[in-house]
Design goal:
318 residues; alpha/beta; Rossmann fold; 2 domains; 6-stranded mixed sheet; 4-stranded parallel sheet
Length: 318
């Protein structure tokens, strides 16, 4: 009997229909420079051009729009350092319901400003996961709002999987899809879609060397809960209860790349493709240009540029 995962191709297709009025159908771009550097044909799925500047809007929008009217009337709650916070705030604004966002005090200024700009109420906390979860629980108790987690949620995973549906419509005959991994909402949704529609396409996760819990989990065959330090601030979460089985079974490999390569790639993308990406968004391209990727078979490689929210006053090469 086949295992049952948190998302399916049916829930992903339903999500695509549900969020279609609000999300951008993001473009796929190419670059001869990247083709030369990798020795392959590279296709960039530009989720950095998605609303709020990241793929996170897909999952948040699906989860918020799927709520019943009674649930929605009490609002939504989440905890996030940035992109998911913005995504939930905007989705709630579009539905006309309250949003309460728990953010660490150290969150990037540009991301907090965006959350507040969408009309959400920000609740600041200490920069630890227990502090975020504790404050979110208190806000839920006070407001009765529905928690929309950043990744470990069936509707969020299904929403992120719509990225792959678009990609397959835009680029035929892919060999490999590369996406970043953190909590694994994105790559879980992508992997489910790939497994259902084009199972011969390899799904590769890109992870920072300094926060390599997913790579360790794949290596050991069991969930490893370990955080680390990396310039990719959006990739420091650990795999969840719902995402780990999908990563374990449907993601072909988790490969790592160091921060130095990520920063160099981020700058290359800015200069040569004119695409503004954050470090977490650039990691897939950094991996594709690294030695760690040399053994991966396939000449047509799609890479998800997952986000473009950068604090312009704190660029890593300034």
């Amino acid at each position: 009997m086949s295992p049952t995962y948190a998302a399916s191709i049916d829930t992903i297709r339903e999500a695509a229909e549900r969020i279609a009025p609000w999300v951008h159908r993001t473009p796929v771009m190419t670059s001869s420079t990247l083709d030369d550097r990798t020795g392959r044909k590279v296709f960039l799925k530009c989720e950095n051009l998605q609303k709020i500047g990241a793929f996170k809007f897909r999952g948040a929008c699906n989860a918020v729009m799927k709520l019943s009217d009674d649930e929605a009337s009490r609002g939504v709650v989440t905890h996030s350092s940035g992109n998911h916070a913005q995504a939930v705030a905007l989705a709630a604004k579009l539905r006309g319901i309250p949003a309460h966002i728990v953010m660490p005090k150290t969150a990037m200024r540009v991301k907090r400003a965006a959350v507040e700009g969408y009309g959400a109420e920000v609740h600041a906390c200490e920069p630890t996961l227990p502090a975020r979860e504790e404050l979110a629980a208190k806000v839920i108790e006070k407001t009765g709002g529905t928690l929309i987690p950043p990744y470990d949620h069936a509707d969020v995973i299904a929403g992120q999987g719509t990225t792959a549906l678009e990609l397959f419509e835009q680029v035929p005959d892919l060999d490999v899809i590369v996406a970043p991994i953190s909590g694994a909402g994105l790559i879980s949704g992508v992997a489910v879609a790939v497994n259902a529609l084009h199972p011969k396409v390899r799904v590769i996760a890109a992870e920072p060397t300094g926060a390599n819990d997913a790579a360790l989990s794949k290596e050991k065959g069991e969930l490893v809960k370990k955080t680390g330090k990396t310039i990719c601030d959006g990739l420091v979460a650990t795999l969840g209860r719902l995402t780990w089985p999908i990563v374990r079974d449907l993601v072909d490999e988790v490969l790592t790349v160091d921060d130095e390569a990520v920063v160099a790639t981020m700058r290359l993308l800015w200069e040569r493709t004119k695409l503004v990406v954050e470090p977490s968004g650039a990691i897939g391209v950094a991996l594709a240009m690294s030695r760690a990727f040399e053994h991966v078979e396939g000449q047509r490689v799609a890479i998800v540029l997952s986000g473009g929210n950068v604090d312009l006053d704190r660029l890593p090469w300034s």
